Amino acid sequence: MDFELTELQTRLRDAAAEYVKSEVAPIAAELDKTKDREKLLKILKGLAGRGFMGITIDPAYGGTGADTISFSLVMTELGRGCASTSVTTSVTNMVAEVIERIGKEDQKAKYIPRLCSGEYAAGGFALTEPIAGSDPAAMRMSATPDGDHWVLNGTKIFISSAEFAGVFVVWAVTDREARKGKGISAFLVESSAPGLRVGKHEKKLGQLASPTNEVIFDNCLVPRENMLGELNDGFRIAASELAGGRIGIGSMAVGIGMGALDYVTEHFKKNGQPDPATQSAIADNYARLAGARLLLFKAASLKDRKKYYAKEASMAKVYATEAADAACHDAVRLLGDFGCVEDCPVERFYRDVRVTRIYEGTSEIQRLIIARELLR
Ligand SMILES: Cc1cc2nc3c(=O)[nH]c(=O)nc-3n(C[C@H](O)[C@H](O)[C@H](O)COP(=O)(O)OP(=O)(O)OC[C@H]3O[C@@H](n4cnc5c(N)ncnc54)[C@H](O)[C@@H]3O)c2cc1C
């Protein structure tokens, strides 16, 4: 076991850190307040230009061809600066990955370079429905064949980046008679597809610069060839892609937690050494985040070696997001009143971290996945 990063991993991490320091962190508070779309899109374009929208993707499709540890490192650096930017990048990488893994050659050639190059500002992952969040197999959205097209009807909710995503991976029921989870298929749906409409913009607790919307499919026409993967195999595809996505969300959460703690340690370095209890809290939180990174790297390494990694990804996600949540909570506590005001970045980190325990599977769902494996 080698704990040293490779040259490529180090280079990508440092490039992400440098971009965050010079371009992202200085405007993160402004993005949070104003949700300035043009500025966010400029940042996303810059990330694409640095190869961060397709980190593990084959260079033949415009990707960087790096490994999942590199992906984790980059997500952590982005999380340190701006969680809204980080989640957009994580989901876009996930969309590019699912197309690369499952897609037919013409789908890969058409969509992945657009995601990696920034021609599409982001990709959308449209799984959740009003009655199907933790239990996506309960989804109602339908896809019916009609000549050269599939006709999609239904509503997805809480879809990240829906307002500017160029393409969505959308899941819909293609066989109502099938056993639960066995009659769902995945589709690639362009944002310009007739019948697709982006609806309500959620007013959230945190990650305010990342738009989250409902997406309505009203007799939405999708070319027949845009089915992604096999008919009725969609649920399996979603489950396995979410495992990879969890590495991204866990890594981002570690970055948010470290961002909050770094601020606290700098504060005490400038203003005098804190009391022993405060020192202890700082040490505990850094130690937990360091442990979370190792879990994330383990899951990433298994994924890259094409070994089973769903349990490890869930362990990494639940541990990392809860460690990060605790770190942000403590950061506010240790700063006292100043930790609660919007001039202090810790106030934003505290709001931004909470949702990492919810999306791409709540903490409770991660525990179910882990326990199911252990008790099998
Ligand atoms: C900001 C944001 C962005 C999002 N982006 C996307 C996106 O891009 N694409 C997308 O498809 N979705 C997205 N989501 C949706 C997200 O994935 C879901 O919110 C999440 O999966 C949980 O589903 P739910 O909200 O319906 O909660 P529910 O499933 O209704 O769960 C409510 C509570 O019950 C618990 N619970 C549910 N079932 C069980 C069980 N069996 N055992 C124990 N406890 C259980 C949950 O842990 C939770 O605490 C986003 C959500 C947010 C908040």
Explain the overall architecture:
- With 376 residues, the chain is α+β, with helices and mostly antiparallel strands.
- The chain has three domains: 7-122, Orthogonal Bundle (Butyryl-Coa Dehydrogenase, subunit A, domain 1), CATH 1.10.540.10; 124-234, Butyryl-CoA Dehydrogenase, subunit A, domain 2 (Beta Barrel); 243-374, Butyryl-CoA Dehydrogenase, subunit A, domain 3 (Up-down Bundle), CATH 1.20.140.10.
- The protein has ten helices and eight strands.
- It has helices at 7-34, 37-49, 68-81, 83-102, 105-117, 234-271, 276-304, 310-335, 345-353, 363-374, and strands at residues 122-126, 142-146, 149-160, 165-173, 184-190, 196-201, 212-223, 227-228.
- The chain has a four-stranded mixed beta sheet. A four-stranded antiparallel beta sheet has the order 2-3-7-6, with helices on one face.
- Helix 1 runs antiparallel to helix 2 and helix 3 packs antiparallel against helix 4.
- The protein starts with 6 loop residues before the first helix and ends with a helix.
- The model has no long low-confidence stretch (mean pLDDT 97).
- Flavin-adenine dinucleotide (FAD) is lined by residues 91, 125-128, 133-134, 158-160, 204, 207, 212, 355, 358-362, 364-365, 368.
- Residues 91, 125-128, 133-134, 158-160, 204, 207, 212, 355, 358-362, 364-365, 368 line the site of flavin-adenine dinucleotide.
